[in-house]
Amino acid sequence: MFGLRKAEYIWMIDESGLSPWRKVWLGLLKRLSIMVECVSKQYVLSYASALTYNTLLAAVPVLAIVFAVARGFGFDEFVELRLRESLDQSPELADIVLGFVDSYLQHTRGGVFIGVGLVFLLYSLVTLTSNIEMAFNAIWHVGNSRNIYRRIADYLSVFLLLPFAIIILSGFNIFLISFRSILPDYQFVSNTVEHIVQFLPLGVACVAFILLYKFMPNTRVQFRHTVWPGVTAGVLFMGVEYLYIHYQIKISSYNAIYGSFAALPLFMIWLQLSWSICLLGGLLCYANQNVEYYAVERASYDLSRRQRDTLILLLVSRICKHFVSGLTPYTERTLAKEVRLPETVVRMLLSDLVGMGIIAETRLECDEYMHYLPAMDVNRITVQSVVRMLDKYGSESLRGTWHTDVPELETIRCLRYDGRDALLKDI
User: Fold this and answer.
1) Which among 318, 312, 331, 326 is positioned nearest to 387, based on CA atoms?
2) What is the rounded distance in angstroms from the CA atom of residue 95 to the CA atom of residue 97?
C-alpha cells in the first residue's frame, strides 16, 4: 500500500512535461491508488461476502429457470452436460444441485407450492440483484437506488432473457463443433473453429462484465471506461474458474476435514473470489472515469463548513438561473461539467439539497436520469435563507432528557444564532 506522502505526491505531478510512457505509468499508478483507497474505505470485500451468500440462495431458482426454458427447447440434456463438465471434479456437488433443481421444478408443476415457489423465486432474484446494485452504487458513491418497480421490471427481464442467451450460445457452440467435424480435411478452418470454441466462454465473460459495469450502477457510466476493466475481470474470472475446475481434486486437505462436503467450501471460495474480481473490476471502471477529478474529489471529503456552504450556494444559483431562463433542467452530470466539479461531489451536495427541500428531483420523458429544479419560489431563495436551512438541516432533538438540566445550552444557542460573541469560560 502506498504511503501517505507518495499517494499525495502523484496527484501533484505536472503531466505536461512527461513523456508518453511516463504519462501511461503515472495514469496506471493513479488508478491503482484510487482502487487501494476505495478498498480500504468502502469495505468492498465485505460486499463480495454478502453477494456470495445471496448467490448461494439464488442459485437453485436461477438454474430452475434455465432448465425450464432449456427443456422447452429440447436443450436440457446439453445444459446438464455442461454443468456436469464444469463440476467434473465434484460429481457429488453436481448431483446435489441437479437434485435441488428437479425437486424445485416438480413442486412448481404440482401446483401446491407454486405460490410459495414463485414468491421465493422473486425474493431470491430481487435480493441478489439489489445487493449487486447496492455494491456498485457504493463504489460510484450513488446514494439512490432504482425504485422497486423498476428493479422488478429490469431484473426479471434480465433473468428471463438469460436462459435464452445461454441456449443461443449453446446452440452456436454445437453448430461450431458440427461444422468442424464436417470439414476435417481443412486444417486451417478446423483449427480456427477449434480456437473459436475454446475462447468463446472467455469472450462471453468479458462482454458480460462490460455490460454489468455499464448498466448496473444507478448513474451514467461511459462505455469506453468499461472495456478494459471488463476484459481484465473476464480473464481473471476464467482463470479462477479454470483453477477451480482442474485443481480442486488436488486439494486433499479439505477432503480430510469436510469429507463428502468438501465441494461446498471450495465452491464458496470460488464464489468469493469471483465476486471480489467483479467488484475490483468495477473499482477500476470508476477509477478510469474519475481519474482526472479524483484529486479534487479526495479534497472534497475534508471540506470546511464554509467551503461546503459556498459550493451549495453555487449549485442552487445555477439551478435557479437555469429554471428562470426556461432551459432544460440540469442533470448531475451537466451541472458538474458546468461548475467544473467531480460528479460524486455534486451528487453528494445535491442529495443534501433535496433532503432540505430546496431543490427537487424529476424525471423527464425518454430520459432515465434525474433532473433538478427549484422546489420553492425562486424569489424566496436567498443566500441567507439557504444558509439558515443548512444550519437547521438534520435532527435537532436528541432522545432522552439528558440536556434539560444544562442551563448553558439555551445561552449558547442564542449566542450562536444572534451573531453575538462571548468567552466560553464566562457562559
Assistant:
1) 312
2) 6
